[in-house]
């Protein structure tokens, strides 16, 4: 016989053990801290031809430092594109920077503390994770990405096999497509728009930037955002605590569960990447570029207006990885 007091005892026990499991799964310890010159020593400036067809030339670290496109000092990392050179129409693209962490990560949390992101017509900045030598099979998570100063930020997942998101997700962002498979969705991704304009571009910058955090487990990907000044950032995030508990961080902006996607198998080990391209096959689409109120033709604008890129820089306070 099962009495009501036994039932309540056993459900309390079940609730407690579920809580304990959840608590365990959401607690991470600091693995790597990247600040200032760590980005020179433990990351690589990639010199590949921009895969998105942008009007940029990605330079190596020696060139980036010599031209002050990359500047690392104290708790500051600046990465920008050239903002002084007029380009010839048939010459190479505007010098810019793309860096990736040498280390790769599977289950982890990455916290990006960013003060400023590239802004301006033609800009297409991204802070993201993938293995660009094994794309799309290693998967891709775009934590910060957008074009031509158009807010809000888009958080997106792209993978190389069947994977979709449920039509209703427990997140504060607004979902676009639910299909994450690059083979069947034209690589548009199963993205989510942040609810606030201060998540991206000029509004992000005038608020002093903020923190993005991405949690990846074998069953879910979550992304949170806290603007610099809203007071809502969890203390373990703002203090760069030695251990963090994502279960205290509230509803994520982007929630990518394994309901119809085997998160554990559609992702490999990923590097962390920052880049800044210009124009290319998103920012430079004439419809997208003009709809943003940007002048003339994207490539002409990049070639002829170097000073338009004076705000096209990343200012990164830190990237911290927890495992
Ligand atoms: C390089 O860039 C940094 C950051 O913007 C700036 O503080 C510094 O003055 C620049 N150095 C030179 C030599 O221009």
Automatic annotation (TrEMBL):
Signal peptide interval: 1-25
Entry keywords, A to Z: Hydrolase, Signal
Domain annotation GH16: ranges: 26-291
Taxonomic superkingdom: Eukaryota
Disordered: annotated span: 160-181
GO BP of this protein: glucan catabolic process
InterPro entries noted in UniProt: Beta-glucanase-like, ConA-like_dom_sf, Glycosyl_Hydrlase_16
Transmembrane segments: none
GO MF terms, alphabetically ordered: hydrolase activity, hydrolyzing O-glycosyl compounds
PANTHER family per UniProt: GLYCOSIDASE C21B10.07-RELATED, GLYCOSYL HYDROLASE-RELATED
The protein's name: Glycoside hydrolase family 16 protein
